[in-house]
Amino acid sequence: MLRGAGALALAAAAGTAVPGCGAEQDDGVGADGRVTIELWHGQADTAKAALKRLVADFERAHPRIRVDMGGGVLADAMLQKITAALASGAYPDIAYVFGSDLANVARSPQTVDLTDTVGSARTPWKNYWPSAREAVTINGRVRASPAVLDALAVVCNRKLFKDAGIPLPEAGWTWDDFTETARKLTDRGAGRFGTGWPGVGDEDTVWRIWPLLWDLGGDFMGDDGRSIGFADQGARALGVVRDLARDKSVYIDPKPGSEQMYQVFLSGRMGMVVTGPWQLPDIRTAKVDYHVVPLPSFSGKPVTISGPDTWTVFDNGEARAEAARTFVDWLARPGQDVRWGAEAGSLPLSRAAEARPEWRRHSEEVEGLAVFTKALETARVRPAHPAYPQVSQALGQAITSVLLGRSTPAAAMRSCAEEADAALLIPR
Question: What does the DSSP 8-state code read for residue 110?
Answer without folding.
Answer: T
